[in-house]
Amino acid sequence: VPITVASAADAVAVCKGGRPALALVDVHLKGDVDGIELGRRLREEFDVPFIFLTAYADEETVARAGAVGPGAYLLKPVNVDELRIAIEVAIVRHAAESQLRAQMRWMRGVLDAAGEGIIVVDRAGRFEVFNEAARRILDYSPGPQDRVGQMIDIAFFLPDQATPFLPEELPLARALRGEPSDRMDIYVRSAGSTEGVFVSATGRSLRGDQGEITGAVLTFRDVTAMRRTQERLATLATTDGLTGLGNHRAFQERLA
Fold it and tell me: Is pLDDT of 246 > 80?
């Protein structure tokens, strides 16, 4: 134990000077900030694992302490062997959590580097992944509470002549029911935008170990330019270039 301090302010100063391997924190400290709030700061600001050492075992204190994610919660007087084990477990657990966070950052970097839009939702339809391409194509960045249904309710997906789908037939909604979708052309417009885009979307279910549906993934690409080109070619094929009127082909199609 290289240093012992009596207040949260002193503990924060120590962490600013150099991150310790672990902190043993009493719930009641000198000053306005108690040990539970200090534990939250140790985790969020300095990524330092900590163990609570306290004489208090009331339900309210235990609940508050548990909410900030300590490595352990030990009651005084502390058994030295139990403390040693708790320290070793807390350090190993923190290392595993740090490795998991690094892997998540790596995975999100890969997803953001992808050229296609990728959206992942959980079983309740809450967004878990909304990569950079999806934000760019859809001109939308969901909040932490956004759900698929809420987005559909605000007319995020708008039907047009090419996409006569009811909201429940859209690829992501179908995937949550276990129904795959392949390369559906959908016209999409975010709530605050007047210009929409055409996307070609594929939806798939995500399943757990027992085969249960745990979420869904939607991949899509912007095909607006291709659709506009197709529309121009169709217009050229049925329109006289000089007058702008329908040509003989258009006449025959209309007559038929």
Answer: yes
